[in-house]
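Write out this protein's structure.
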Amino acid sequence: MELVLKEGSEVRNESKNERKKLYRSLFIALLSTASVFAVFMIFARDSTQILKILFLSPIDILIGFGLFMGIIFIDTLRTWVMTHFLDEHVNWKVALSNSILGYFYTYITPSSAGGQPFQIYHLSKWKVKPEISSAIILTRWSTMIIFLSISSILLLKRYLFYVQIGIPVISQILWVIILMGITVSFAIVLMLLVPNVGIGLVNFFKKSRILKWIFKLFKKDDVEVLTKFENNVRQFYDAMHMIWMKKPLLIIFDAMTGILDLGILYYILYRSIMAASYENGAQFFLSFWSLSAIFILLSFIVYYFPTPGSSGGIEGAFYLVFSMYGSPPAVMAGILIWRISTYYLPILLGIVTMFFEFKAKNKEVEDAQKT
């Protein structure tokens, strides 16, 4: 009985700590986006026009959110199918919650990095074997890295010079950063496809004097950290081998759903800017395919912005580039419509889902205490 009470107290304390982290991340995300748009509004030639477009666009926000719910549905179906064919049967409700909370944690963690780790934890909490949950979530991450890397190489020659912001030197700096991002991405792909490369990198880190000095500077045990990193790398390869070798058709299914997700996300942005341009009586001179190509290339910059959900960096970079091809007020309003539809409303949906998660967890502890 004492053990149950102790566990219940720990769960409640953990819930409080999680809530504090959530509130802090949400505040930073809102502040980052608000700061970027405040700067643009100050320097915009016609800031009142931007607000006017937004007031006329609630239906476009709802349509964008409805399309984003299509992405949630596709991800839910993917998780359900993957667990089913790997003999780990989760129900539809768990798969839906996993998808919603995956985006939620992606949006509230720095550089959009927290979604996959939480999804792995969440599936494991629902009795999915850790190696299976890792395989399911990391397969999506790896297939998307491979798709974006290959796509970027195919698109570079034609679309790199579309990334313009009006100042030639800064545009050239952006090109260099994009090329560096693509290079790093291909290095990651090489690690994914050739396990010896990943293990070799770990062994290189172990021998690095610079890393030892950095660990010492931050008072970290280099042996402990690198050993944990090596174990994670080996678990990753085991998880990948489980699906890539045993269930190759699942990889095709996973890649198709991932590409469909990206296509819908790009379309929501395109539609939002086009709708805002229409409200402003202006034109937008990029096709859906051109916008998608630029989006892919900019992905190697904006998602590394160190704020929750990369907020601020995404809005700023997209505005600077896409405003070259349309009316700046309309483009800014369109980007804000897109972010409300695909970022802020999903965060609210995640908060509601998280509330029910906390409630279910507390009820589980109370039932255990009664017995």
